[in-house]
Amino acid sequence: MSTQSNNSNIQNSQENSLGFYGSHGGQFVPDEMKARLNEVADCFNKYKNDKNFLAELDDLYKHFCGRPTPIFYCENLSKQLGGADIYLKREDLNHLGAHKLNNALGQLLLAKRMGKTRIIAETGAGQHGVATAAVSALYGLKCTIYMGEEDIRRQELNVLRMRMMGAEVIAATSGQKTLKEAVDEALEAFVNDPESFYVLGSAVGPYPYPEIVHHFQSVISFEAREQFQTMTNSLPDMVVACVGGGSNAIGMFSHFIKDKDVALVGAEPGGIGNKIGEHAASLVHGKESILHGFKSYVCLDEKGEVAPVYSISAGLDYPSVSPEHAHLKDIGRASYVAVTDEEAIKAFFILSKSQGIIPALESAHALAHAIKVAPNMKGKKILVCLSGRGDKDVDQISAMLKENKIQMS
Ligand SMILES: *Cc1c(COP(=O)(O)O)cnc(C)c1O
Fold first, then answer.
1. 214 given a catalytic annotation
2. Which of 15-19, 93-97, 150-154, 332-336 has the lowest mean pLDDT?
3. Whether residue 292 lies in the annotated active site
4. Which of 75, 149, 247, 258 is the most buried (most CB within 10 A)?
């Protein structure tokens, strides 16, 4: 029953009904989209704790995804840092190399229950697109992925992987031609085709998506909390996860929210600086606004419009963030820090060399924070969500090495 039992946690951080987390979240969309979203919500509420549904999902987690993923104690790295002990939750060991599949599988089962025949998804770096293409292939459903034209150019390999699994990849050609535009076009396609189901890739969007994604990703901390106790006879003192839209982080935090002594820290992409356009740290630098049908912290420019965002890590550069994280920040239950490109690259090399694990550049942001604070936390334990593996980033790192932009330290 891996996805059950986080309802009390949802209640904890959710003050009002219908998708509000304090002042954030909600459903700021036209009426016709509201009707479609509420159809999805009804299906989710009907099946989220249904025995047969959960049994089917658990079977897929076990046999298709490779769950449960282990917890790993980084002995070499911990010794090297000389402070806190560092542990990793190995989401990089999932099929396709990241946590994205946890959510794509869950949403696909909902689509099937609703009798939908076409799957729609947005993707940024392509990781969610690949996961959605895979589960659509598994269930023989037609799959259309919306991806920014700029991202299609940068992520050639993932585009090919999606096509190999039978998905159609459509270029979003407006604006910055990246993730924000891909979401705009995917939402529009969803409303225009009543036979479609929109598989949203992060804990963002209008109600019910933040709640759905939290539910399916909470399998991470459902496993991790128990595994950590079995391994160490204690709970971690600090849990760290990187935050793009916030799905691996909310999945990693979920079952620890009620453990008040466990510090929860989200690592946002600090990019190359604090100015507009130099980062994508919506919680650290953003202001409350509405984007893509929900209210949360958004990176805005001087005019109050959505700012261009940047991160070295293509999976983190979204200008807003999960409304639940916005609320956890407001009530002080979690804290959020901006980690720079430089710090993330350093952590990428440190983990590769010390433990033989190449992390995704996204996950390296979380790791970088742990590396920064560990020396002053002797006797404590830090659990880091290693959201994905770094094989996909090796080409990018290679190019930067060749141009002498970075050093292999
Ligand atoms: C997509 C992705 C992320 C960022 O998405 P979240 O919804 O914030 O988790 C982080 N790590 C990896 C490996 C990813 O593929």
1. no
2. 15-19
3. no
4. 247
